């Protein structure tokens, strides 16, 4: 099997920045070094400098593809594969091939070349990437129909950004180096405005920076690099859920902002000892603040808070860590310096900022009643068990006559309880045994021997040891139960946090795996699925693995799914928690696939519904005009009838009217079909509303002259297709005339609202209940009609479809006093002067 070829992508912010030129230049450089280079496909767009660079490179002939009585040229994939060069230059990665081609998209052609071991150099603009397509449309107002999945570009071995300032690109455009002279003015005043270009340039720079960051992280993972590389500032702020959280977040955001737009990450360590005192409400508020400042919120589990913080920071390649000064009183900090001090000592090359705040030193120090039985607490317990009994003995020795044996035992029992609270059962037993020996030697007659002369004293010592053991056991059991309950609460909080992130589609599945990776401080998490050919990665966070055996920990997620975890071996309790995540991941994957299947089935169901309604309409509504026309023609053809001239004219008129109505029905059906398939041609241009209104009313004949018009003289131009807008207004006007009383004709008014023009067609008919407003826009609906000669119910459905295709809206409103108002709202042509040439009054004179 051939080694897969390498992909190099030249990414640009806009057409004309020099992507194709750079691609061809790279082709020449490689050819000069002796590399076998061919041009699979290049589009010069009439640019002479680009065309000159094609000379000297071998061109693979294009493949002609016939489509709709025309012939187009596409890349000949078979010819390139047969030629099998070392490098193929293929322009326009996001291009959609002509129907009938080998593949639907050009990036699929390129994928075949890569699979064959051919290196490919290609080009793409930022507006064609799927993830930013909607953002680009908001910036430029131009929808991009040719897109390429981000994953295709991110998978490239090299991505090179072709950058150019907005001013330089506009100069290049003005000099005729991008478009033909007749297109320059329109391009400069629309898509290539300086603001648009600057926004697109920033999008391209940010997207490329993220890609470089991913490559850096992958390199660090591959080479097991845990140290911080300060290639990009990342500021991590630690949140406890305390009242100082908002101060810390804002301080960290300022630090990140001063670092040329560094990343802000907030992290909360959910401790399993339950002593953090974290307020979930405060954490939720702080999370919203972090996200409003452009940062991200994360939560991890960890008994050792400093170690968990630093592990997270190093995994994210953070450069700075922001902590709040301790809220504990100064006396409490004498015995235990706290999280901040431990973090500073172990931070290494990560800068740690300790931020003072209004709550520093004002907290309450909680007693550590055995809530944590970690190694440090046990060590402290052993030290106390060995040190406190001798110290208490020394303290009691000067007072042999003031205190009796009972008092001494009670003091030693209190000491044992203290040791149990600190270190648990084992240190408490040591303290009890050592205390009983000291009591026997120093305070039980005969003194300074281990012999007990009095039976009562022997019984008292025995009871002391039993009571000390029982109390220690109870304290230790309570501590363990507290720890288990706290860990369960921490796990529940983590599960709730992860559950909130899995709502959505495929991106949510990747986000969920990323949260698992962060929570357990892993290098990567991969969801693998077994099929007939082996294991296939479904989704991953970090560098994916190919097989479960390549991972450090494997957690089953279903019959054919496994969650592969790399970075460290997980404890049994952690694996149980990850098992819940794995089950949830399987549910999310099933949901994604079911949603995808439902989405694929929805158009089929809709098409079937329309087809059924169409057949019913054709079988009923087409028959009436067709039968009338046939009857008229049959009568005229009858040889037995000698018809007067007036009757013949009347029959011919009836046939002509019926056939016109039939032709109108067919036109509406065809237009509705074009709208559903996206094949209707829309010619948007600055349009004078009053001219279109005049033509639409003329289409309605004599009845149209009864409609009362109220339009201001200074009405701005709208961005619309004049012909389609005329049909929309004619359809709405015909409906208004049909339902308006003879003595109260419809009104048509025009007004301006913000940057839109609203055209209202008002009738005083019976109206339609608000609950039925949505139904009147469904195809093949004749709500309220009592006859079948008025059409097949496509008028309003077609009108709304045409309006929305022009970027407008068509909505009903209730007419005050009774009736229905249809409102057509269209955007103004704001970049066109109000007195544009060609706009005329109804009498034909220029305005």
Question: Which descriptors apply to this entry?
Answer:
847 residues, alpha/beta, Rossmann fold, 6 domains, 6-stranded parallel β-sheet, 5-stranded parallel β-sheet, 24 strands, 16% strand, elongated, transmembrane, Histidine_kinase_KdpD, phosphorelay sensor kinase activity
Characterize this entry briefly:
With 847 residues, this protein is an alpha/beta fold. The model is unreliable at 363-372, 782-793 and 831-847 (pLDDT under 50).
Explain the overall architecture.
The protein is α/β, with parallel strands linked by helices and 847 residues long. The protein folds into six domains: 7-222, 3-Layer(aba) Sandwich (Rossmann fold), CATH 3.40.50; 234-355, HUPs (Rossmann fold, 3-Layer(aba) Sandwich); 375-480, no CATH class; 506-590, Beta-Lactamase; 625-677, no CATH class; 685-827, 2-Layer Sandwich (Heat Shock Protein 90). The chain has a six-stranded parallel sheet, sandwiched between helices. It is elongated, with a radius of gyration of 40 Å. It starts with 6 loop residues before the first strand and ends in a 20-residue tail after the last strand.
- Note the gap between the termini: 73 Å
Number of E-type strands = 24
Largest sheet: 6 strands, parallel
Structural class: alpha/beta
> Which regions are unreliable across 5 or more consecutive residues at pLDDT < 50?
363-372, 782-793, 831-847
Assign the CATH architecture of the largest domain. Answer: 3-Layer(aba) Sandwich
Oligomer: single chain
Rg is 40 Å
- Domain count: the total is 6
Provide a count of the helices. 25
Could you give me the name of the CATH homologous superfamily of the largest domain?
A: P-loop containing nucleotide triphosphate hydrolases
The first-level CATH class name of the largest domain: Alpha Beta
Strand order of the largest sheet: 3-2-6-7-1-8
- Indicate the overall shape: elongated
Amount of beta strand: 15-25%
Quote the CATH topology of the largest domain.
Rossmann fold
Portion in helices? 40-55%
- Mean of all residue-level pLDDT scores: 77
